[in-house]
Amino acid sequence: MNIKAFTELFPIFSSASPEILESLFSTAMENEYGSDKTIILEDSWGNAIYFIVSGWVKVRRLLADSSMTLAILGKGDFFGEMAILDESPRSTDVVSLCPVRLLSISAPDFLNALNHDPNLQHKMLQLMATRIRYVNVRFQIRNHPPAIKLVRLLVTLGENYGSRNDQAIEIFQIPIQDLADVADITAEEAEKIMEKLSKNEWIDIDYDTQTLRLINFKQLINLANKI
Q1: What is the pTM of this model?
Q2: For the structural domain made of 142-224, what CATH number should be given?
Q3: pLDDT in tens, 176-194
Q4: 3-118 CATH fold
């Protein structure tokens, strides 16, 4: 990957100065993880920020005897920033859902770049504000029907991380329990909704490639926005 591809893949760096980009890119470390591997641990100290080159991860919180998935992230996104910004232990785990390629930048290098590039600071604030806005939307729809909450999640994943192929938008076949956790519904509700969407040919699941195809994306958007 060259610097041009680096900035195109990760919008946070789109307005950073060439000097800062060169510095960050030269120190970035490439990491690869197989499926179901813990990338960062809850309560560990943040020593790096991670950028997803390919693959999918879930952000989860450990409970007494189980865990809950809080978010699903894909190609072009990043994680691990909170612990290095406020210099506190990490509040969540991050686990790979499939084989993942990451670029990691050490906390000192990334903080130094933020301190010396106002454009990078501004972009970071914008992206973090977008995440807070998304959390607010999830709170606002907490009492909506399960189907609307799940379809909103599928649409968001498709818009943020999906790839278009043969008139459909393709995303990873995310496990039902993880979809249910993030959508704030039960696994049983999620499974029934996914079955109905498949029966209506709005989605299609390729189990061999672990691909979820959002076929009728326009109808999915319409349902997601239904009150």
Answers
A1: 0.92
A2: 1.10.10.10
A3: 999 999 999 999 999 999 9
A4: Jelly Rolls (2.60.120)
